[in-house]
């Protein structure tokens, strides 16, 4: 029995069981690796602009603190529940371990549609959430970051709320802050840049020439838009993009810089073009060289997996592919090269780590240095995954998760059980 429920958590459990079976982890050792160390549920009341009071439910899950403080984003979305947050925290643990960061995984969130709030209400809710979390977080306990529905401004409100409570400025309590408030250059772009960099590495392995290749990007938020822009700058024709308002298609390639400017000014792709409109249901199964699902979890199920017509599947989102779809993709490894999510989108947490280190040291790097170090860690992890996948003739996701789970397991066994 467990307190965690829902399809996203069940997906994380199934993925872990696959890896635990592959690694031969004894049954009695599995719950300690899988179940979160700590989870918190809080009520966040705020005054609405119309004078009424509204209460929103917030969560924070810390998966493990064996390797260091926990690290993970905070999402504001109407789908957020404890099970989803727990699954995301678990995935973050394997991700941090895979790329060699001294972190355990965490995740947080509030069940709210942020677009339904005014700016004042959003600030009040952000500050109230952090106020409720103060007993459970800290620069050496749990470090927050942005995620779906949150941004640099919300991180600044988090940091300010925590700092007011401490009586001094504590920039290292969150990452993904504005540069003016202790953030690092290159953090906002880090995840999307990392996705594009790893696509280039995969293309090199497959002898695919990216200049003139085609790409489809599902999700045009921070990750998807930056990944699309970076791919565009490499010469890739991004032929289709989508967000929650719709999809756009152009066979000769979309004007990605113009789309990025439109989305930044309007908040979405809505209103850009009626002539280029596409049924979003067609996005994932379009023929292309590179497919980047960069939206939400569980968008590639078994049916879609069998219909994919991409050469490289670069998982910019967390958990976009179900375990049932994985079984099909595993049988299509000769056709489709998977860059699994815990590797593909890890650029964000890598540069968040750099931000945390810079805040602790009060010494900041130039953007070129941040990018150089990000790509260095991503390259190392990519090479480890490919080496293990080739050596043991296993699926890329199996290789990536095995590396992450093994590192956490080794650390727990070395430290022992207290008391």
TrEMBL record:
Q: Which SMART domains match?
A: ELFV_dehydrog
User: What CDD domains does the entry give?
Assistant: NAD_bind_1_Glu_DH
Q: Which GO terms describe its biological process?
A: L-glutamate catabolic process
Q: Name one GO molecular function term.
A: nucleotide binding
The active site is formed by 107
Q: Which UniProt keywords apply?
A: NAD, Nucleotide-binding, Oxidoreductase
Which PROSITE patterns does the UniProt entry name for this protein? GLFV_DEHYDROGENASE
Cite a single Pfam family from the UniProt record. Answer: ELFV_dehydrog
Where, by residue number, does NAD(+) bind?
191, 222
Regions annotated as coiled coil: none
On whether Lipid biosynthesis is a keyword of this UniProt record, the answer is no
Which residues does the UniProt record annotate as the domain Glutamate/phenylalanine/leucine/valine/L-tryptophan dehydrogenase C-terminal?
184-416
* Site, Important for catalysis: residue positions: 147
**Binding sites annotated in the UniProt record for substrate:** 71, 95, 352
Entry similarity comment? Belongs to the Glu/Leu/Phe/Val dehydrogenases family.
Which PANTHER family has this protein been placed in? GLUTAMATE DEHYDROGENASE (PTHR11606), GLUTAMATE DEHYDROGENASE 1, MITOCHONDRIAL (PTHR11606:SF13)
Question: Can you say what this protein is called?
Answer: Glutamate dehydrogenase
Q: Lineage in the entry?
A: Bacteria, Pseudomonadati, Pseudomonadota, Alphaproteobacteria, Hyphomicrobiales
């Amino acid at each position: 029995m467990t307190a965690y429920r829902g399809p996203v958590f069940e997906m994380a459990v199934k993925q872990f069981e696959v890896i635990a079976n592959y690694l031969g982890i004894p049954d009695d050792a599995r719950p300690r690796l899988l179940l979160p160390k700590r989870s918190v549920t809080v009520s966040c009341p705020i005054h609405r602009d119309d004078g009424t009071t509204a209460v929103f439910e917030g969560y924070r899950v810390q998966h493990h603190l064996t390797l260091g403080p926990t690290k993970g984003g905070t999402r504001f979305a109407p789908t957020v529940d404890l099970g989803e947050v727990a699954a995301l925290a678990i995935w973050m643990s394997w991700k941090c371990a895979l790329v060699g960061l001294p972190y355990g995984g965490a995740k947080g969130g509030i069940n709210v549609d942020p677009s339904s709030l005014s700016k004042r209400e959003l600030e009040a809710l952000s500050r109230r959430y952090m106020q409720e979390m103060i007993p459970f977080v800290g620069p050496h306990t749990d470090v927050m970051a942005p995620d779906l529905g949150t941004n640099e401004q919300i991180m600044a409100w988090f940091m300010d709320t925590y700092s007011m409570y401490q009586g001094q400025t504590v920039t290292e309590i969150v990452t993904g802050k504005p540069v003016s408030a202790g953030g690092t250059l290159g953090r906002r772009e880090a995840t999307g840049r990392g996705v594009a960099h790893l696509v280039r590495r995969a293309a090199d392995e497959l002898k695919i020439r990216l200049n003139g290749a085609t790409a489809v990007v599902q999700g045009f938020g921070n990750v998807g838009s930056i990944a699309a822009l970076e791919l565009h700058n490499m010469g890739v024709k991004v032929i289709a993009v989508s967000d929650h308002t719709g999809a756009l298609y152009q066979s000769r390639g979309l004007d990605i810089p113009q789309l990025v400017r439109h989305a930044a000014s309007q908040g979405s792709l809505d209103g850009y073009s009626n002539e280029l409109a596409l049924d979003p249901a067609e996005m994932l199964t379009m023929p292309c060289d590179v497919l980047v699902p960069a939206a939400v979890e569980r968008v590639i199920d078994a049916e879609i997996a069998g219909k994919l017509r991409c050469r490289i599947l670069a998982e910019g989102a967390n958990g976009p592919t179900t375990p049932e779809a994985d079984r099909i993709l595993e049988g299509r490894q000769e056709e489709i090269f998977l860059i699994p999510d815990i590797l593909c989108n890890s650029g964000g947490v890598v540069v968040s780590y750099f931000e945390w280190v810079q805040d602790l040291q009060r010494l900041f790097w130039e953007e070129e240095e941040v990018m150089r170090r990000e790509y260095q860690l991503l390259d190392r992890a990519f090479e480890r995954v490919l080496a293990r996948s080739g050596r043991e003739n296993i699926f890329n996701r199996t290789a990536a998760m095995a590396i992450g789970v093994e590192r956490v397991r080794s650390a727990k066994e070395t430290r022992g059980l207290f008391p």
